[in-house]
Structures are given as structure tokens and as C-alpha cells.
## 1
Amino acid sequence: MPNVDTNKIINGTYGFLYDEDGREMDTTQEFEVKADLDKKDLKLPGEFFTRTKIMGGKLSGKITFLKIDSRLQKKIADNPAAKFNYIAKLADPNSDGQESVLIRGVSFDSIPILAYKMGEEVSVDVNFTADDFTYQDTIDG
């Protein structure tokens, strides 16, 4: 039987996102940033299995938030080429600490001008790429 304290499993309810001004994006419903690695296949003499070498990578992600204003959409529309910094944080009070990541050079893939569906709350999805990231805090178990 696993010896896992289930209270330590991180609850996404305690996820927070902050923009470049330090302002919490307090209606964020979902956030993801990931690094996709570019691998090259290598065949070596006498080796049956193909080996791989990481040649680079690409950071990308997605933010979903409930719409209460036009702040982010206007910021993107005013300067589509602009790059921003964000801090994403997981701070579940039942865990052994918090995890936070600074994401630098966030560039949005589209401008979410306007969308809605009758009888439902309005949410906005924005995909992005980023230049770099740094862990500011980690949860060491």
C-alpha cells in the first residue's frame, strides 16, 4: 500500500497567475506552460535501438480566464508584437510549500477580440509562446 499523505496532493484551486505589473489575474480558471523538446534520432553502428539527442525546445502554454474586463485583449491588440512576463504559482496551504515560475517573453498567438454564448459565462482562451522560464520556488518532498 502506498504511503502517500493525500492532503499533500496539490489542489489546483490554489493556483495563481500574476501579470507583468504584479496584478493577479484573479479569474484564471486554467493555466499551463510546457517545454516541448526537439529531439533528433541517431542511429549508431551496432545499436539495434535508435537513440535520441535533444537539439532544442519550445515553450508554449495556454491561459483560460473568466471575462470581467477587456484589459488583456486590449493589451494584446494595442501591440501584438509585445512580450510580457508572468508569474504562475501553486500555493496549496496543505502542501509542503509553494511552487512558482517566472515566465519571460510571453507572446500571445492571437487576439481574442470578442466571443460569447447565450446563457453561459464568458471565458477567454489565449495560447502563447515564451522565451524562457525560471523556477522561483519549488516544493521539495
## 2
Amino acid sequence: MSCPHAEPPEGVREIEGTMHTDFRNTMSYGSYLNLDRLLSSQHPASSPEHHDEMLFIIQHQTSELWLKLVLHELNECRRLMEKDEIGKALKCLARVKHIQKTLTEQWSVLATLTPREYAQFRGVLGSSSGFQSFQYRAVEFILGNKHRGMLKVFESDPEAHKLLSTLLEEPTVYDAFLHALARAGYAIPVSILQRDVSEAWVCHESLIPVFMEIYESDTTQWSFYQACEDLVDLEDNFQAWRFRHMSVVKRIIGFKTGTGGSSGVDFLKRALDLTFFPELFAVRTEIGK
């Protein structure tokens, strides 16, 4: 005769008998994620430690983790486009778009930092600045906003400098897409297919008829149409992130200069003029004329 099953106390969820509870000789959640290292990587510089500096550090560390994943996905997206696996590449773009929304919403957490609170520990940041984020710069490079002069910022960090130097000389996601369109029979000008990929992308009016065909033809392969729209979404999201960044900075420090030496809000505002895929916006003016 079996013993009656004892019910757990009210308000307590029972630990099922099949669940692992001894991790002395097996991998645990913490060991898999290397949480001991991750959670000990926050080192406030203020002394005595300012309560809100932890927020500032974690805000930027989590952003860097998301940027690492964005770069991971964009590299894979480019690789898949180079193999004409457009459908699989779109999955990568879909994931990037969700990450972008998370990054943008995350600014609302930093916005809880008041001007007075930030001013109390801002001095310990020295000349460190988000402008020096090599992963953010890498994302901009792989999307087309390249700037050889930015390499100088990372000369003291050999790994970051190597990554950015490599991306500078490699095709962008947009280049890979245009080459895929060319292989599918679209009239992409040879001058664009053979362009110097280390240069920042600028608008090429000769591409507008190509995108008009993609948008207006009933025979367009759906994945090409969707790729165009996903790239537009990606740029929209990037601009939303830039604007939110600028807004939060203005909210917290007003029009002070940045810790890295920039003009602050005015410098961030100029980033809103940058574009990755200008033809995908220009074509909208021509559609339906």
C-alpha cells in the first residue's frame, strides 16, 4: 500500500521529483551562462559608490550584449544572401528587428536617472563614451555607414580594431542583397556591383528603377519584396533608437558636451541624417506616378 501523497503548503509550488537539484557533477544554469563572471563584471568607479551608477553600467552592458547578437545575426544574414538563401536571411532580419525594439525601449530605464543623480557620478567616467562602442560601430559598418577615420578611435584595442578593419573592407548586408538581385536577373549597374565597399554608402539613383520593378510587378519573388520591406523596417528602427538616445541624453544632461569630447546632443542629432538604404525610401516617391 502506497503512502498518501502529501500536498505542499498553501502558496508553495511543489518541486517535482524528476527535477535536478544536485549540480556538483553536472552543468547548471549558472555555469552554462557563466553567471559568476557576468554578474561580477559591474565595477562602479564612484567612491563612495553612488547608488545609480549600477543602473548606468548595466544599461550599457546589456546594450552591448544585444549588439553582439545583432552583429551575429547580420553576419549570418549577409552570408545567407551571398548564397541566395533569401528566406533564411529574412529570419535573421526579423530577429534583429525585435532586438532593436528592445534596445530602443531600454532607454526608458536610463531615463529614470535624474540630472542631479547623474551629475553626482558623471565625473568618474573620465573620457569614456558610448561613441567608443566598437560593436555599435561594427553594426553601422556592416549596414553601410562606414568611416575609415573611426579606426583611429580603436587603435588602443587591437581586437576591436581588427574587427572593424575587416568589416570596413567587406561587403555590407545591402551589397549582398544587391548582388543577389543581380544574380536573379535584376539590372543592378556593374559600377555598383564593383564599388569600393570600404566607402560609406550613398544614394544611387540608378537603383530606383530596380526597386520600382520589385515593388510594382505582380511577378516579383515574394522574398525580394519582403527583404526590401525588412530593410526599411531595420532603418526605421535604427532611427528610432538614435532619436530616443538623443532625447534621453538631452533629458539628463541638457546641452552639455559629451564625456568623450563631442558636442553632445548636437552630435547625436546629426546621426539622424545618416541613412543605410536611401533608395528604398526614394523609390516611394516614384511609385504610382
